[in-house]
Design a protein that fits this description.
With 233 residues, the chain is of the alpha/beta class. 31% of the residues lie in helices and 30% in strands. Helix 1 crosses helix 6 and helix 2 runs parallel beside helix 5.
């Protein structure tokens, strides 16, 4: 669907959900990206990272269907390790704007994940080894994080009080749109998919509190992007 495989693409890639984070990472790559091409409605970039390593990035994207299509294209091009870097909204009272979440699973409340599962489970899981590496990297750089479930939904305007409370009771820390889908595709295709999320807004008191301009949110995203630039290639 996305055309022929780029000859310069390696076996690892970072899927970056948002344009601001893509822009920041591109700014870290020395000079201009070594390679660039469109992939669906997103961009695929491959440039020189820290220490001369090659960093591949794909994004931006939004929602489970597009995330799955983008991931399927990368897998078809023989990418075998994918780190998903995105934003989420806190629903746990213990989670705040600017916090980091490393999901250990995502409750499937989207329409895409079910197409990659047998219907016997309510949650999709990331690659344990990859998530372990993410956690070790955060610990080694003194970055605090939450580990636990998230809730993935397609219908952001139907995050009702009943659903928020229901998924909170199941242990969900936050809500996003793509984690369950990328985990499900990764498991189905037998590739390693990991995830790291930064909290952009809160709904823990059942009122929406945006934090997109908060300093803590911006700082944490930049710290995560810096780690990706230095260590993920």
């Amino acid at each position: 669907m996305a055309g022929n495989r780029p000859s310069w693409l390696g076996s690892t890639c970072v899927m970056v959900a948002t344009q601001p984070d893509m822009d920041y990472l591109c700014g870290l790559v020395k000079e201009s990206p070594c390679h660039f091409r469109k992939i669906l409605l997103s961009r695929l970039l491959c440039g020189q990272g820290h220490g001369g390593t090659i960093l591949s990035m794909a994004g931006p994207f939004i929602g489970a269907p597009f995330a799955a299509i983008l991931l399927e294209s990368l897998i078809a091009w023989n990418v075998r390790e994918i780190l998903f870097f995105g934003w989420c909204g806190a629903i746990s009272k213990e989670v705040h704007i600017g916090d980091i979440i490393v999901p250990d699973r995502s409750f499937m409340d989207d329409g895409t994940s079910r197409g990659y599962t047998d219907g016997t489970r309510d949650a999709a899981v990331p690659a344990a080894g990859l998530q372990s590496r993410v956690k070790t990297l955060l610990v080694n750089h003194n970055l605090a994080f939450h580990e636990g479930p998230v809730w993935s939904t397609d219908a952001i305007f139907r995050e009702t009080p009943e659903k928020v409370m229901g998924f909170r009771k199941k242990g969900a820390l936050a809500v996003d749109m793509e984690a369950a889908a990328v985990f499900s595709v990764g498991n189905f295709r037998n590739v390693d998919v990991g995830c790291i999320l930064v909290v952009s807004d809160e709904m823990k008191d059942l009122k929406w509190r945006p934090g997109f301009t908060h300093k803590a949110f911006k700082k944490q995203r930049q710290q995560i992007a810096d780690l990706i630039f230095q260590y993920w290639a």
